[in-house]
Amino acid sequence: MKAGRNGILVAFALASLAAPATAQDWSPTRPIRVVVSSSPGGGTDATARIIQTGLAELLGQPLVVENRPGASSQIGAEQVARAAPDGHTVLVTASSVIVTQVTYRKPLLDPFKDLAPVTQILSVPQMIASHPSIPVKNLKELIAFVKARPGKLDYSAGNYGGHPHVTMALFMTMAGLDATFVPYKSGNAGLADALAGHVPLMLGNVLAALPHVRSGRLRAYGVTGAKRAASAPDIPTIAEAGLPGYESQQWFGMLLPAATPRPVIERWYRDGVRVIQDAKTKERFLHDGGEAAWSGSPEAFGAFMRAELAKWGKVVKAAGIKPQ
Asked: pTM of the predicted model, to two decimals?
């Protein structure tokens, strides 16, 4: 009996030693395709390019970024879901890929069944801003301005049914406002129209919008997070600027095809966390307005995504957003 018990203990010890070695045994054998579910220059794209070089060094293969925007991150996500689960195709996407589960009648994919979570990369607040032609200086004045013009003002917030859309819908609901959402193929397209004055109001992530606020081409009214952005400490949160209780945080994450073997996921997770937590990477994220994230494990990231789905399902219902 004692010998049998010792044998079991030895087996457990060998298994514990073998687990990390197995993860290290897998290595990519050719260039890696990084599918980014946004257009070039957007927040998702910027996030992927910040970690691109570091991951290439650790994995020993070049990473080739491929932008596949559309359908609130679903186009790029669907392509990765259909890719060979061999670790040579990885998705960098935004929180919209979860939100679309409650804003589309027939989502192009189920991220919980079709994708394998690796790690959250970054969390970043979004920003409510306007073209400088809007004659208001702060959020309270903006709320009064929109309230005095029910249904007469347009705003951009990326694709229909994405995270920016529901974030702005939450703002409109809590502030009691009536404005018209104008969907764009990408957040970048909406940003371009806001800069040109074609759409007066916009919501965009801090990474993309902040440079234009600094140049005076946009006027910022508040960031959507629970705290001020480290890169823009002078811009208040929406909650402190006049709408107590408001909070929404966009995030970006890394996922693989669902059937990817565990050793491959572990290698991506281990190297991904090393790059994300590197001091230079974290500094770059902070400079651009975001904060490096660490999901704790692929399972923890998956649990976080499920919590996000529950949260935004309630918001969509309260805002009366009809799935398209």
From this structure: 0.82
